[in-house]
Amino acid sequence: MTRVNVRASREYEVVIASGLFDTLGESVGRFFEPCKAAIISDDTVFSLYGERVTASLKKGGFSVSAFTFPHGEENKTAATVIEMVDFLANSELTRSDIVVALGGGVVGDMAGFAAAIYLRGISFVNLPTTLLSMVDSAVGGKTGCNLERGKNLVGAFWQPSLVLCDTDALATLSGEHIAEGCAEAIKTGAIADAELFSLLEKGFNIADAGRVIERCVRIKASLVEADERDNASRQLLNFGHTIGHAIEKASGYAVSHGNAVAAGMVYETAAGIALGVSEEESLERIKRALFANLLPVSCGFPSVELAKIALSDKKRKGDTLTVVAPKRIGECVLVKIESDEIEGYFEDAFRG
Questions:
Q1: Cβ atoms of residues 201 and 289 within 8 Å
Q2: Which of 103, 104, 157, 336 would bridge 130 by S-S if both were Cys, CB 3.0 to 4.6 A apart?
Q3: What is the CATH number of the domain that holds 293?
Q4: Closest listed residue to residue 142, CA positions, set 62, 44, 58, 223
Q5: d(CA 259, CA 244)
């Protein structure tokens, strides 16, 4: 069992081990007196783990209710979040009760947001069930939902009280879902851990899952501790996401987050070369790591369309958009692009 402390505005623990769902009631009971626990999950994940999680919480003395919604990024909407909040209100949760997010990134983002805005904030426990959410989205307190205009345009910074990564959940994932998690892990290696990147460059081995998750969580924890509100160094975690989010939006979310970020890293590194920041070797190694993990290195959308979408990116501040470029594997820098230069930035990215 591995424990990582995250020292943000709310200090909390990330636990990485197998069998955590079966001891959930005991784990949550270390931090909370018996109270109401509202599980929020999607239909697919709840069918796999809902019964076990409910039983474990009840064994720990918690009174359990559950809200489920149809799985998929297309349901990551404000309407779904309001349904969640209505459920919490109808279940008569108070500020001494908890939300339990059970699922991948979509579930964690929305359940965390519902917890942040219900009664102006109640505690939530995050139980990520995908590799992608374990290595990235479950840690750091970014919560929210999508709007028609773009991804995650509504949200709040709201740290969980506890994150439990049960690695047994990885056994139920398809190869495609494992690959999507690898995209975020490759990103983490590219920005801050050359050794992790080299490991993934050979292709992900499920036997290394605990090690990969731990390294990603430790790196993200350090960036969150230094810059919780995403104003400086934490933005390095956005490598691949500026173009990646535009790809997702252009596809109507038919392209998954992991696949979009994978292609985004290639394009953003190519743009970094044009800017004189990145090296050709970094581009080749990123492509090699993506190929080794069965991830795409391109997309079928024109740069002009994606540039227009990027103008609505939540990372834009005033007339500038901050992008990430690797100096070398394991070290990235932030680069500010003026609004009137964004189309040129995308053209350089796709030309490379």
A1: yes
A2: 104
A3: 1.20.1090.10
A4: 223
A5: 8
Q: Residue 65: enclosing H or E segment and its boundaries?
A: strand 63-69
What gap in Å lies between CA 100 and CA 126, rounded to an integer? 6
Helix axes 175-192, 280-292, angle to 10 degrees: 160
205: number of Cβ within 10 Å: 11
Contact call for residues 104 and 133 (beta carbons, < 8 A): yes
Per the structure, the complete domain to which residue 257 belongs is given by 175-351
Neighbours of 2 (CB within 10 A): 15
Pairing of strands 36-42, 63-69: parallel
- Tell me how far CA of residue 112 lies from CA of 99, 240, 295, 304, 315, in angstroms: 8, 24, 29, 34, 20
Domain at 44, CATH number: 3.40.50.1970
| 137 DSSP 8-state letter | I
193 and 157 housed in the same domain: no
Split the chain (352 residues) into runs of 10 and give each run's mean pLDDT.
97 98 97 98 98 98 99 97 99 99 99 99 99 98 95 97 98 97 99 98 97 99 97 97 96 96 98 96 98 97 93 78 96 94 93 76
The candidate with the shortest Cα–Cα distance to 186, out of 264, 270, 272, 129, is 264
Look up tokens 């939006």; give the residue. Answer: 249
Q: Is residue 164 domain-shared with residue 183, that is, in the same domain?
A: no
pTM listed for this prediction: 0.95
Last residue of a domain, one of 172, 207, 232: 172
Q: Are residues 95 and 229 in the same domain?
A: no
